[in-house]
Design a protein that fits this description.
alpha/beta; Rossmann fold; 6-stranded parallel sheet; 10 helices; 6 strands
């Protein structure tokens, strides 16, 4: 994991905390987005813990560039701010999660593990913003999205998975809710995306609203 934050004291404290957890291996640190790109290229971390408001290059731009250059790297935002522009900018740039710095250590560690599995991790207050934005966008996007119906009908189980996916549930959370294994959920998610003809979970969520599943 690569820890990126311009506040040295916070960054060092975070590294010290994470270093005590056997499931978290910190391979490097950076004080701004440009340094993050350089360190990621050299160290190939699985997860980057990214602050947003930093000098030289902010976290949103760094996330977009990092995902373009290294699509296998998962970016988890950890910031003080949850303004709409920060949230939507980070998620559009390719971050798989968005947490605020007041989270507990246990929540942060679990979020890092989820991010490594490419599962979406959102602070509850952030998730509420995202769902509200989906609702707004669906009013505009639904006609275009549903110009052609899905080539294959979703099974009832796939509809259940889609409903949970659309409100930001991770594969683990879906598995727990539906009493399935994470591997089975992953297969269902893949099938859902394929049947809906969409590329990612965000587009699938828009389709879910357009289909009246939420």
């Amino acid at each position: 994991m690569l820890v990126v934050d311009d506040q040295a004291l916070f960054r060092e404290g975070l590294i010290t905390l994470l270093s005590t957890r056997p499931e978290c291996q910190v391979v490097g640190e950076a004080a701004n987005g440009l340094e993050a790109l350089e360190r990621a290229a050299a160290l190939a971390p699985q997860v980057v813990l990214m602050d947003l408001r930093m000098p030289v290059m902010n976290g949103v731009e760094a996330t977009a560039r990092l995902r373009a250059a290294h699509p296998q790297v998962r970016v988890l935002v950890l910031t003080t701010f949850e303004e709409d522009a920060d949230v939507y900018g980070a998620l559009r740039a390719g971050a798989v999660g968005y947490l605020l710095k007041d989270v507990s250590a246990a929540t942060l560690v679990e979020a890092i593990r989820s991010a490594a599995r490419n599962e979406t991790v959102l602070q509850p207050s952030v998730a509420a913003k995202v769902v509200a934005e989906f609702a707004r966008l669906s009013e505009v996007a639904a006609p275009a999205l549903l110009a052609e119906p899905p080539s294959e009908a979703l099974s009832e189980r796939e509809r259940q998975v889609l409903r949970l996916l659309a409100v930001g549930a991770s594969n683990r959370e879906i598995a727990a809710a539906l009493h399935l294994s994470e591997g089975t959920v992953k297969n269902h998610v893949t099938n859902v995306l394929g049947k809906l003809g969409v590329r990612d979970r965000t587009q699938a969520a828009l389709q879910a609203r357009a289909l009246g599943l939420l």
